[in-house]
Amino acid sequence: MTDLQGSASDASPSLDWLPSIASSLCQPPSLRPRGQQPFPSSCSRRTPSCVGLREIVDALRSALFPGYFCVPAVPEGDLCGQTLAALEYAALHLPDQIERGFLLVQGPEVDLSDRARAITRELVTQLPRLQGVLDTDAQAAFDGDPAATCREETIACYPGVLAITYYRLAHELHRQGVPLVPRMITELAHSQTGIDIHPGAQIGERLFIDHGTGVVIGETAVIGDRVRMYQGVTLGALSFPADERGHPVKGGARHPIVEDDVILYAGATILGRVTIGRGSVVGGGVWLTHSVPSGSILSMTKGNGDSASPSGAA
Length: 314
Known about the structure:
Helices cover 40% and strands 14% of the residues. The protein contains 9 helices and 15 strands. It has helices at residues 4-9, 18-25, 50-64, 79-106, 113-125, 127-144, 151-157, 159-175, 181-193, and strands spanning 196-197, 202-203, 208-209, 216-217, 222-223, 228-229, 234-236, 257-258, 263-264, 269-271, 275-276, 281-282, 287-288, 296-301, 304-313. A 6-stranded mixed β-sheet has the order 3-6-9-12-14-15. A 5-stranded parallel β-sheet has the order 1-4-7-10-13. Helix 2 (18-25) packs across helix 4 and helix 6 packs antiparallel against helix 8. The chain is globular, with a radius of gyration of 21 Å.
């Protein structure tokens, strides 16, 4: 078991900038302490370590939800102490993983340690903002699921909240140009929840993914605020342009835009750079490859499993 307090005291970089962020994350201290959550020991390979990244993301998750996922060697009642220990652990160990990701792309002759530390500091500095966004996601899960008995249940138990937490952390690293590591983080969530969110996707506030198994959100997908989706939803690409060798051309917007207040029911498949207008409802099993205006209500056409028809307007 990793001793978070001990690991911080032996480090050479100064971490005196962390207490203010820990204090910010703990205000208001309305979240009750939960059980201990140990961090397993890291691998020492020079490629990014899945085990190491899981430890780091678990530490960041502990900081984002103070009192829910406690760290060892710190009294449970010391909320800010718990949060600070988690931040110190992430701040000390994430730069190495980021540097490993860069080394796979740029080669070992490049000194990336300063850049990796700067990226880590930027991520940690953004945590209070991310905490506010994740608070809206947890609230959306509670508001959207009649089976949820309290917000605490959605934070502690819901796979959608976990996957969105991992995504929001990975997206910040992706935004800073970190290779490999963001995708590894979202794949950790994918393997645990069955929810596949590419870190490059752009997602607004109050996203609720109910159940979640089989959800796929592609790299260039754009999702607005207050969107709700259920298991098996795919926001994918319709086709891939090929180069002269027949290889897919990388980059380019190829995934759907889902505007604010849209509901996507189980098994809906939306492909290509199409727009689902604000307030639309896409029924279960619908296969959609064209844009629809705001307020559309789409359902399966009887006798035709490959199309959808509007059945009214909201």
